[in-house]
Amino acid sequence: GTRIVITLALFLLGITLILTGLAQSFGYALSMRFLTGLGNGAAYVPAMALGSVWFAMKRRGFATGIVSGGIGAGTLISGLLVPPILVAYGGEGWRYAWYILGAIALVIAVVVYSLIRSRPDEKGLLPVGVSEKDAPPPAPSGPKVTSLQWSAVYGMSSVWYLGLVYFFYGFSYIIYMTFFAAYLVKEMGHTQAYAGGLWALVGGLSTFCGIIWGHISDRLGRSRGAALAYFVLGLSYIVYALIKSEFGFYLSAVMFGLTAWSIPTIMAAAAGDFVGPRLAPAGLGFITLFFGIGQALGPALGGYLADISRSFTVPFLVAGGISLAGMVASLYLKKPSTQQ
Question: Which of 212, 217, 292, 330 could lock 225 by a disulfide, CB 3.0 to 4.6 Å apart?
Answer without folding.
Answer: 217
